[in-house]
Amino acid sequence: MSHDTHNHAHGHNHSHGGHDLPFWRKYIFSTDHKVIGLQYGITAVFFLLFGFGLMLLMRWQLAFPKQAIPLIGKLFTEDGILSPELYNQFGAMHGTIMVFLGVVPLAVGAFGNYLVPLQVGAHDMAFPKLNMMSYWVYFCGGVVMLASFFSPNGAAASGWTSYPPLSVVADNGQSMWLIGMVFLITSSLLGSVNTIVTAIQLRVKGLSFMRWPVLVWAQVTTAFLLLLAFPPLEAAGIMQLMDRLAGTSFFLPSGLVVSGEALKVSGGGNPILWQHLFWFLAHPEVYVLILPAVGIVGEIIAVNTKKPLYGYKTLVYSMLFLGFMSFIVWAHHMFMTGMGVTMSTFFQATTMIISVPSVIILTTYLLTLWGASIRYTVPMLFATAFLPMFAIGGLTGLPLGLTASDIHLHDTYYVIGHFHYVVAPGTLFALMAGVYFWYPKITGRFMSETLGKIHFWLSVTAINGVFMPMFFMGMAGVSRRLYDQTVYAHGAAAQPLNVIMSVSAWILAVAQLPFLYNMAVSWKWGKKADSNNPWGGTTLEWAASSPPPHENFTTPVEVFRAPYEYSSTKKLLPQFVQEA
Amino acid sequence: MEQPHYGFWLPPNISTHGADIDNLISTLHWFMAVLFIGWGIYLVYCLVKFRERPGHEADVEGKTHFVLPKYIEIGIIIVEACLLIFFSAPIWAKVKKDFPKESEAVVVKVTAEQFAWTIHYPGKDGKFGQLKTELIDGTNPTGLDREDPNGKDDIISPNILNIPVNKPIIVQLNAKDVIHNFFLPVMRVKQDAIPGMTIPLWFQATQTGKFEIACAQLCGVGHTQMRGFFNVMSQEEYDAWYNEEEKSLLGDTATSPAGETK
Amino acid sequence: MGHGEMTVEEVKKHVKKYYVVFGALLCLTIVTVGISYLHLPIFQAIVLAMIVASMKGGLVAAYFMHLIDEKKIIYSMLWLTLVLFAFCMLIPLFTLRGIQTYS
Amino acid sequence: MSALIPYIDEPHPVTGVTNAKLGIWLFLASEVMLFGALFSTLIIMRSSATDWPAHGSDVLNVPLATLNTVFLITSSVTIVLSWAALKMKDLKKFKLNMGFTVLLSFGFLVIKYIEYTSKFHHGHFPSTSTFYATYFTLTGLHGLHVIGGIVTNLYLLGPGSKMWNTEPERFTGRIECAGLYWHFVDLVWIFLFPALYLL
Asked: In this complex, is the C-beta atom of C96 within 8 Å of any C-beta atom belonging to chain B?
């Protein structure tokens, strides 16, 4: 901490801090939000690839049941065939890793950390040390999760939802899963406090709330969701740990008989309680996954259509409403627990209501395209693809949100198709768009357009090959999480779809190679960005130099207008430029 | 009894209430398709028409915007409300609330465990025998007390649910260990089997045939193997099977009062 | 809260208030323990205990945590939290009650 | 680096609060949800339990818990007095009051320890019944919060108080935040006490 806090307002002393720190303070235990953002990003990409890898292995078993995995199968089991034990572990860990260690850290940790302070014109996050701590707590959570694969009977295998009693009677990997989750939750809580305070308190002169870029709105809404929805899961996690380690019976009813033997617990608990507390988080979590993506896509569409976002205020209110409503729809995940008529009607109604702001958000983006002059850069391609993919994901939520149609579709591949459309070609595409879009800001260089286009077209084709067949498979009544669906007659009939999905998934994996190569190589050898604002962006991050220096802005910045406005010459005008 | 035909779409429906569900599903998908194709056409049109090219400037003032979306939005809300009020809620109420009288239905207990289903018929007396945890072993998966007068004639049918056609069936669903899900794809029946709770459900078959029971909730390592069968029989076949089972339980004295067979 | 600019006099006034609140809290503690020895029917007992607890909590929040005179941003955030808190308390209970079972 | 982060020691002109103040309230909001879930569990466990004691006082030690309530309430007063002392620029009085707070919280823990060990002696463990499971988990988590408060308060009493010499405003702000947290811990106990011991 410095001693001259009283002249804080206009950074006269940014010479110290960034340049004379030792390596480990500058790049490892850094308090600079940009370094932490990159740390989050790199770790999250690693976990995304890891979680994706688990699924690639599972997809072999699904496409070719009980056949040895070629080449690498022997690494996992003696005969090279993925065992059902491993299959369940991989399934549970795929979900956990993708959601809690991959997408959220990338969308909230990396993009939030890097961009929110820049977009509000701050020099850093409000609590830089806390920021560093959130990253390292997240890192520890990740290490615990990875380590759980090496516990005696492997990692958690009760699905990412960890429903008790199954998860309570499961092997030790589940305890590590819970401990890992406590770390991840703590990290998210610290991070969201930081994001909210930064966005609200450190706004630069002239930046009123209604001048926040959509990404800031999205990140703040997300932070509120994390802040208020995660604690119940933390409580539930602690209770499940108590059930597992201290022999309590929060989630264990009386009279359990597991593999022929009466369980020696007091009983009297309620397994459904876990589902309530879990989904109290996990439904808002869906919006935690999607809102940052909505924000990123909004920024990219505004810049690449070269016109203001249509209905900025409507968009903002929709996001806030969406965030609020996301807290009262959670039990639509639990229709099949025997829910009564009154409560199921309540949750169906809230679920139908929440579709309204989603449609409004999509509509504002679609309407922004009207009358635009669309520049097809790689980020814009991904952002454009986000729209129909998100639409499919959203629309297929309807039959799942209505109890009657959910009777047939609940817990089938239809569900998997639905939420993957939202999260994979939805959120992940938006995040990739974000990477391409802000890469020149982060490094001062562009990523290759050619490789980017190859990446885009391969990905968009392959990813639909993965997820589109799932709707048909779900219609056919094939349950999710099946090790080998050919056991069932209706499963065997739908099996060819599995082959299509698996092959598409492997193509999708190959399609990511140019992306990774592009990201790595462009850092040093990419085309140089000719200015601080190569895309013609309107928000504050484009006022900083590329890459932004340690304290972001070398000259004081000020905001003069709403984020997406145009000048008298009918061109988009940055927020930070005063019109002559 | 021929094999039902399965494919890439809804499996055949043989229940009385299933047609409503199928109707709702197809209505919903038509609605979704209309919306998606509408958006799609608009999107593609925009992407082509408003691409960046020489001589084309973005209309930053948004003068060309139209008011259609407002009506579309209102339309969507109305359609969703109708789907909920006129389709989903009544179907759910019918499935969950309008139970047939037990006297007119076949009542069975289904108990799920890792990784099998146990189907328990009350026998001729129409009363279920007591279940006692301490009696559970390999041959008695639910711990049925045969000493209990009500339990003597109870039929235990591992993994096979036999039911008569055109007669309502009431299932009392329970689980011994973890949460399972009792899923009859052709019957449009799905209900979590939750330990500690006995949850009722009902359905009525309209065709005979041999079908499958699937577990639709991850229940452990053998989840995929948790496959049961259900046979829908004609009333005569069903009665014949039932009497046969009773006979083998109680000997030829099946028709005599229960007390004598001790 | 505007306590940043408080004068010493104002602080002294506050301190007096703290002592009054302290006394009230002690009294209410005695009251709630006393009520519990009456062994009232469970419903009345719960209602009374929660009323007393809410009064105590209210005093702590209002005076010790200065919520009686706080900024709008804190209020709006806390209202949001309270609404969600209510959802978290009530909805699971209602839903669990709604499950029909035999037993 | 803090040089460039505004509103550390003076309130933001629009929101009217400092960064730390907003931050601690956000944190407390999340704590409200944490305990919300636990209280929700308490209600659900109780409403379905078969062997819940008719009165908590039948199985738990009410006099000790009442004493603990008094301890926590008193410590809440002393911590707010320590903040008022700083407002009056009286570091000594601050230290005295903060010292009392820490002492009282240790007293709370000691009593908790006595309660726990006597329960263990009588063979009552978290695994005994859902009542004990709830009792131990809720009071245990609350106890962890008390320990967290003690660590913070000890730091602010000891090495942390050096900040008074360089940045008095900021230090007062820190004490206010520590106080808010501590009052919250008190608040939770105010509800836990009747819910577990008296009902």
From this structure: no
